[in-house]
Amino acid sequence: MTIRVVLADDQPLVRSGLRMIMADHPDLEVVGEAATGIEAVQLVQDISPDVVVMDIRMPGMDGIEATRLITAGPATARVLVLTTFDEDDLVYGALRAGASGFVVKDMALNDILAAIRVVAAGDALIAPGVTRRLIADFVGRPGAAPKRSPRPVEGITEREREVLTLIGLGRTNSEIADDLFITVATAKSHVSRLMAKLGARDRVQLVITAYEMELVTLSH
Predict the structure, then answer these.
(1) What is the largest CA-CA distance in the chain?
(2) On the chain, which terminus has fewer CB atoms closer than 10 Å, C or N?
(3) What pTM did the predictor assign?
(4) Angle, CA of 92, 96 and 98, to the nearest 5°
(5) pLDDT one-digit tens code per residue, 162-211
């Protein structure tokens, strides 16, 4: 199946580089390009891509606001955010806005393509250990999330609660299977059911939910 991609970046050279290398990969197709957040949102509405590779810093509407509008709308497109190492605060904003993953602009282009495939498959881009550190920092920041009571865990089974806890700890599906003495296929099924029951777009949001439910805390 071909993954349909929109490239949103105000730098033509970045878009051109990605488009050229993707042309050599038949499973990836650039179906649109945007130089602003407004253009990205409109393209998603018009052509319904699978993934939007979204720059954070763009004129007018930035990538964070564009991500928020895309993920809040009816489209099923997942957003993969382009960032740099000195933009941590913006990364947290993108996470809150619903981004499914993050890539650094100076990564090898082939690594960025691999990240597009991961996000399109519904998984988190970031390696599990990094995901845990990033989201632990995110939920621990003053003002990063509204103060509220722990989110209730009604509607999920005890086994799914165990799986969600392990996801929050940054475990991969293979590690979850080992910890719970189940098959990897069963672990994947539990993860899929959790996404459906909790309305999570991807694994990153499941990690956030685990923290919100206080299944995992910053002391873990």
Answers:
(1) 51
(2) N
(3) 0.70
(4) 120
(5) 999 998 887 878 889 999 999 989 999 999 999 899 888 777 778 778 87
